[in-house]
Amino acid sequence: MEIEEFVEKYYVERQHTNSLKWDLLEERFGQADLLPLWVADMDFKVSQAITKTLKDRILHGVYGYTFAGKSYYQAYNNWMETYFSFPIKEEWVRFSTGAVQAIYHLLYTFTDENDSVIIQSPVYYPFSDAVKDTNRRLVNVDLVNNDGYFTIDFERFEQVIIDQTVKLYIHCSPHNPVGRVWTEEEQAKLFAICQRHNVLIISDEIHQDFTFEREHIPAANVFEGVHRPRVITVNSASKSFNIAGLTHCNIVITDDGLRQKYDDFANSMIKTEANIMGLFATEAAYVDGMDWIDSLKNVIYHNYEIVRDYFTKFAPEITVSPLEGTYLVFVDLRKVVKSDEMVEFIQGKCGLAVDYGEWFGEGYEGFIRLNLATKPENIEKTVQTIVEQLG
């Protein structure tokens, strides 16, 4: 489907629909009259397959206790095997209400209070929240910024693990907010370090379906799964198919011992039933969602090109990180806006609601993250306004 056709068919106005992204701007940013390009959900209707499945369930009229049937696991397995060469066994899968909740539960299961947990900043800020909220000790290693292209400091990563006696690493793949899709070699080097020092890996792969320059390789599949016994994968259709509000997430634990330990924790601490709509929507997405998401990806990459090309032409001092994955682009404004004036510039002058760089880690003041999952008109307005306000 062409970009214009997809936008015409699926773009939807979301104001006054109890949208966190659009209707809580006053509470989050202190201003209601902003163009929201912040929290990671989309301004597009879900695929027709999902709509039909949910409509049929609504017409059935009963929303009682449910379970994931064989067809769910088959659909999930087919999706993972077809697009990521990672066939999933039913017995490996557990559910959560979301990726963030899953990470909290996994931290409680596999670490103790005051254990060290490592992340690589700038990174999705609920990672650090989860570590601190569970009374674990947050250990951070910054990615290396090469003019907007971020890479891993492997030597530093290993030394910090040794010095801080790290027990667990939260991996972000594809990486939010810097847009990297880690290569197999990069991941293999990281995971070999974890193996040498007995560090468990939680791999948040919720953006797995949004890749542009290379294919996503699941952490559990790196080098034919050599590190699989220490990898726990968290993924979901929520980002890919814009169904985060249906609160359904997969946790994949291939190792029998780790899975038993998680089950022991879950049996005593987690009694949440699966969301009937989340289950059915996810299955529908995995059965009949690829054409929709392929068209969506064309829109997202087009929006990225608008940002990259406009700033390159009219404000070359702004650095735009290459978009290998996710639908979020990281932008470095430090050469054109003083860090202590960033909020006034972005909100007061430009009228935008964005995720600020410092939310993702200390030292990233002056960066912003833009959500590209909206109509191109909003992205064009955004970059034009920023350049105009720079004078």
Beta-strand content estimate:
15-25%
Summed over residues and divided by their number, the pLDDT gives a mean of: 97
What best-fitting shape do the alpha-carbon axes yield? globular
Helix content: 40-55%
CA(first)-CA(last) distance: 38 Å
| Structural class label | alpha/beta
Total of DSSP H or I helical runs spanning 4+ residues: 15
Low-confidence stretches: none
Topology order in helix (H) and strand (E) letters: HHHEHHEHEHEEEHEHEEHEHHHEEHEEEH
Report the sheet with the most strands, covering strand number, pairing sense and barrel closure: 7 strands, mixed
Order of strands across the biggest sheet? 2-10-9-8-7-3-4
Number of strands: 15
Describe this structure in words.
The protein is an alpha/beta fold and 391 residues long. α5 packs across α12 and α6 packs across α11. The protein contains 15 helices and 15 strands. A hairpin with a 7-residue loop joins β11 and β12.
